Every structure is written in structure tokens, then in C-alpha cells.
Amino acid sequence: LYVHDPTTCDLRLERPYQPSVVESGQRLVASRVQSFKRPIVGLHGGFGGAARLTLSRDAVYLGGQDGVVTVCTLSNLNVVARVRLSEGPEPPGIRVLHLGASSQRLYCGA
Would you say 26 and 36 are in contact if contact means Cβ atoms under 8 Å apart? Predict the structure, then answer.
């Protein structure tokens, strides 16, 4: 994430995305139970699949293709919250983020 001065375009802040949510699970392989833990990364930017984002007066909401919504403050780009959408074994990818007219509700399209 980058914050630029609106008049001079000078870079004010820069913050890399850091996964902090870890998914734990188990699977059965050759009649043995294997446990695993892996970080849930919320942003899959790039040419093929840009991350989805929307802004409010004091926060930026980022939606990733792996179903993670990350909320950062606009003042210093600190992570305030991170939520994973889930509906089954594989999380849906977030295609659209939209703040309602009152900026009280965040709508996610998967």
C-alpha cells in the first residue's frame, strides 16, 4: 500500500502486505492424519488478478482472491482487522468490494 501527497505526489507512507491469519487443518493421507498450518494471504495483485479495494473516510478495505478482507487505517496504514469469507472447504474469491451509501456496511461480491 502506498499513500501519496495529493498535490505534490510525494510518497508519504509505504506498507507491505503481511499475512497474519493462519489456517489450521487436517487431512487423511494413506490412512494417516496429517495436520497442517498455512498463512492466508489476502492479496493476489498483478496483471491477471488485481486486488479489490474501497475507501472510507478513515480506512481502506482490501479484498483478495482467496476470500480475505483486510482493513487498514488511512492515517498510518496499520492493519485494523482481517476477516476470511468462507462457505465450504475452499474460500470464494472476492470480486467486488463496495461501501453502502451511509458507509456503515461493506458489501462483498464473491
Answer: yes
